């Protein structure tokens, strides 16, 4: 109610031009539907939550969110949100693809969003990230920092998306070490439980460290916290993923491969509010600021100026197109 | 008081005790709802109207219930043979593979012949996967509880591998198969009713429900009206005595695990053929484990199982509505309520038995049976 009143007042004060924008704005009723992984995973879903929260803080426009319990609910909640007039509706994760393809055409006037997959419909905004580019850069940082020339990778569930992280990382390591560096790679499991198994993640990291790895990159959701802890316990370094995880074990997390789902969500909602929301694919890479490596007060001592220079050079080369990072998902193969 | 209690009349055993148990579970759940600062009565109201208040709610409730009837029956059948089949989850998962393989590769079958083939394949795959723990129990004395639990992981790993590496549509991120041809689908009620000009909201509720009811009837017939059922019950009561009666416990163990796995396959029919129309990763979503609770609550009787399955269907559907209307009550709350139902209906089922029996004994001097 408060929101409406403010809108109304703004409209009255600022005249007809703004009034039309405000009328548009009044239609914005954003919603977020998380994937089965749940809202507070300290990584992917939580990033979306943070972006939506930032939007609410800055604009005063509240958003609704929901965690689903099983597959059958996907279409059900999408229809329910759409019927209740929510728009844009942001769905988190590629698992929403099929449900969205079915429901979005039923509500041509509602706006939908999906993260990590492409749904080619006139009222759907598809947001995908070039994780291989960000992983390449952290691979460069790992290879430049490693003393043993051996680095590790612990993935979550064995799916192409995670292989995309792994492949980008391996390419970065090989690039920076002139093909000499070794990458140990393990996946935690083949089921979604692999996203939430910090104990096994820790064991995999330990085994890689035993084989000589001194830096381990975790792309494994909550499982990654076990990887980060195992590396810290062994006095080695780790690399976090999705959100900035440098603060988790200060001095032991070398950097994090940032995937800015928060920024993407925030931007999408803001665009909807401003009437500039567009359907179609947004592929966010290093160039668009969709992925990046983290540098803050927790890891600034770990990344030497030389390493930083190398990383930034690699980043600039990728942006300029001088380095082509192979995307595993383009052909389900890794040239490494 | 110290005299041995007379056995409870059957109606009290099948209906009253579960009802008291559920009431206790809801009472405790109400306290939890109160603790997080919501009105429990309002929560119950949303839950019930969400589950049964409109046709859409009813459709979803019965859709979930269909899965629970199948998994509940699968668990119950083994109960009667004295076996605790914890592997319904994995058996249903592998059954989904059978249904998908048939639906995708037997497309030459005419009309609904394809759907029938897919249903049979689901049952066969479920049974085959249950057969291994059954064999190990019967001939190798490996305890079925342990083996079936472990087989859930094997199922999960196999399906993960197949869906990710073999059956996935190339270039697609989701680990799932292509969509089945429409004549492999179990028809949904809203589609059928539309043919007769009746409007029914879009829900996954499909003809598998009738199949589930038929399965419940067949299980009842089997357990209480056939020689095999008699053998199953005898082995369940006392395997040593069964041998003296000329019954082979090994055979009974194998047969009942096979049937149990086939029943678990019914869940694949409901979810894979009835709603998703493609095989997806982790489609079972813990419904196999809920089947254990359903069987316990339904006291391993098909009628009890149907009622318990509908109750759990209400919890799932009403719970979703509750989470939708009350953002404070998350999906985890529904798990808490389910957990309490399992606790009271399963682990503590004898808690109210004595008081209820005493109460009834006081009222009736001549108890029936």
From TrEMBL, chain A:
Residues 37-325 form the ABC transporter substrate-binding protein PnrA-like domain. Transmembrane segments: none annotated. It is found in: Cell membrane. Keywords: Cell membrane, Lipoprotein, Membrane, Signal. InterPro entries: BMP_lipoprotein, Peripla_BP_I, PnrA-like. Gene3D superfamilies: 3.40.50.2300. It is a lipid-anchor. CDD domains: PBP1_PrnA-like. One of its GO terms (cellular component) is plasma membrane. Residues 1-25 form the signal peptide. Belongs to the BMP lipoprotein family. This is Nucleoside-binding protein. It comes from Roseiarcus fermentans.
Automatic annotation (TrEMBL), chain B:
It comes from the Bacteria. Keywords: Cell membrane, Membrane, Transmembrane, Transmembrane helix. The keyword Transmembrane applies. One of its GO terms (molecular function) is transmembrane transporter activity. Its main location: membrane. Pfam families: BPD_transp_2. It is a multi-pass membrane protein. This is Nucleoside ABC transporter membrane protein. It comes from Roseiarcus fermentans. The lineage of its organism: Bacteria, Pseudomonadati, Pseudomonadota, Alphaproteobacteria, Hyphomicrobiales.
